[in-house]
Structure formats: structure tokens, C-alpha cells
Predict the structure of Copper-containing nitrite reductase.
Amino acid sequence: LASKAGRLRVRLTAAGGRVRLGDRDASALTFNGGIPGPTLRLKAGDRLSVRLRNELQDPTNLHVHGLHVSPEGSGDNPFVMVEPGDAFDYEYELPADHPPGVYWYHPHHHGTVADQVAGGLFGAIIVEDPEPIEAARERLLLISDVSLDGSGQIADVSPMARMLGREGDLVLVNGRLTPRLAARPGERERWRVVNACVSRYLRLRLDGARLQLIGIDSGRFSSPRDVDEVLLAPGNRADLLVTTTAGTASLRAAPYDRGDAGGMMGGGSPGTLSGAVLLATLAVEGEAVPALPEVSAQPAPRDLRSAPVTARRELTFAMGMGAGMGGGMMSFTINGREFDAGRVDTTAAEGSVEEWTLVNDSPMDHPVHLHVWPMQLIEVNGREVEAVPRQDVVNVPARSRVRVRIAFDRFTGRSVYHCHILDHEDNGMMGVIEVR
Ligand code: C2O
Ligand code: CU
Ligand code: CU
């Protein structure tokens, strides 16, 4: 669905339904009957109107992950609650200089986010490039994972899996199992990949083709970089160029160890290894096409490494034994507190640049996400890193300290930051920020 004359109006209906997932018939959750939901194509400066209808059994709402839009009122407001049977009209206005890239949408009603996203409620948003990058074709790959039981229902999730972050045993690309893609030798393709998994990390490798990274989330390098692999934490997106050579290339996720519960679960804690998976194959045959010229430099966004910092804060992400939960259940906190929608945890001044130190005081990685205002990764464990200038999910490895900078520009209002292992978010690892 693409905008016309600066405007896109869509109706999204969240409902249960029968769909084909991989090689199975499944009962899942869908936007407009499909998994993924419709792709929304916008341009900077556009206005997007979404009427969200809730035909689920539980409350829901909508979040436009990564878009730089107002968090207030009927904008990207995570505090809206749409009851079953109700509808809500969202209005999003993209600034005229909104960064191009791939974004996504999913529900954000605290307590049911992991179940609803794992159930199938997600879709992509593309903000087009002002100057198109030349490619033979563009592919959008939304990667999700789910476990189905014997009758094709979404499988129950154990309390242990909710603590560790669930990983489904079907890993799907646009709802399909290991799709086969076709191309001719020498073609350059544009791939936009979304990690829509609840907890699974994707260490993407493409063997048998040239892989170049244009950017992550809304951030871009000044020119595409040749890479061997790209790590996408849950919620991250990659903007890629793939140049084919004759033969078969395979898109795989290599294993990624995201830690464990460090004995907190009592007895030997199971680990959380995102295992190796074959995601898709690319069959390259036929007559070779002439090579396209290298992609020229992209306009560089503001680099916050040289910006004056007006405030510094430290946010500590921790897992511990929940006192009030009868023991045995883990608590997920930021600076010692679980999420409370009625409390403001952090206030920032509009127009300021802040530096946040994200401390992971636990034996498991936490991918930290901030709505509305992107982060620039500066340093990991005291070592400076060179990263894309704008990311909305930054991984904070187990027992690590990560420094980011954030420009709180353009918008005021309340929003949230949280761990994008959605089970952790639903268990309380989320805070409220107010920008004034
Ligand atoms: Cu993709 Cu607050 O989430
Ligand atoms: Cu988000
Ligand atoms: Cu987490």
C-alpha cells in the first residue's frame, strides 16, 4: 500500500484466523488476514492514517517501530488501549526530513506484546529513498519464529521460556519456510530484512553472493560496506545490497549465544542459544547481466559524537528473583523498578543531546530499544565502536556497559524504552520517558 499525494489511509484489522505458516495449516493472529500484514510505503513528509480494528480476544494497540513521529495523542502513543470490538484512529505525520529506510509495526499493549507478535501481528513500513538506489529488484524479508502444537495452534509458552525469551522452532521468511528466490548472475538486489522474532537473534550470513550493508534501522553508512555477516537483535532491520554470482547462495542465521539465566532459575539454567537456521536460498542462473556502478555516497546524518552533551544517565537492566511473585519467578527491572505506566522514570529536554550508559547487570543479552528518538552507539565496554549513526535497538551484551547518545529533537511527550526481547518487556523491563 503506497501513499499518494502525501497521504496514505489504511485499515488494519487484528483478528484470529487460519493461515498457512511454513508447511503447516495454523491458527494464528493476522492483520487483514495475512502474516505478515500489509507493507506500508511512505515518503518523508507524508501523513499516515491507520484505523486499527481489534477483533482479538484481548486488548491491543499499534506501534510504528522506529518512525520519528510524535508520541502524543493519536500518534505513536504506546499507552493507547484498544479493547476487543473497538477501533482507534492513528495519525502519524512524518517530518519532511524523515530518514528513509525499513521500519515496522506491531502491537504494544503491555503484557501481551510477545504473544501478539509471536502470533503473527507485524508488518513492514518502508520510507522511500529520495534518490533511488539502482537495483534489479527489491525484496522485503520479514523473519519471524513460532512454535505450533499438533493441531496447528500457537503452542503454549512455558514460564521458563518467558523468562529466557521464547524462540519458536519454525523460523519463517514472510510466513514461508525456506523460500527459494531466483535471480540472474551479476544482478544487484536490494534486500530489506526485519528481525520480527520475539527473542531470537539473527546473525545473518549469505554464502555465495556479495553482501553489502547500507545501514541498520534508520541509520546509514556514508557508503555501503562489504560485510561477511550482520547481527540483528530482535527489532533491528538491515538494509542490504546483494550482488549475485551463478550458483546457489544460502541465507543463514549462524548460531548466536545470548547468555543464560546464570543459575537464577534454580538448578542448571538452560542456555539461550539462537541456533543455526537456513532461512532462504537464492538460485542464480541464466545469462549474466552487466554490473551496475557502485552506489555513491549517501548524505551523512548528524554525528552525535561531536555534539555537546547536556545530560548523562545510567540505566541498569537487571534480572533477579521476584519478591512479590511467590518466589521462583524472575523479575525484570530497569534501575531496580518494573514498568509502571503511571510513573515517569526519565525526563529529558526537547532539543537536548543526552548520553546514556546502558548497564547490563545480568548473564543474558538485552536488546535495548527507545521509541521515537534514535540512539547512536558510541562505546561498548570502554571501547569506541564505529556504528551507523541512528539505531533504535542497540544490543547490550551480558555483563556489559554500552554508551549511546540520543538527540531528543522535534517532539515532546511521553514514550517508552524497553528490552526488545518482548517477553522481558511484558515482564516489566520497560521505563517511561517524558520529553518536555
Ligand atoms: Cu518494536 Cu516498543 O517496540
Ligand atoms: Cu518500538
Ligand atoms: Cu531482555
Residues 63, 65, 369, 371 surround copper (II) ion (ligand 2) (CB under 6 Å).
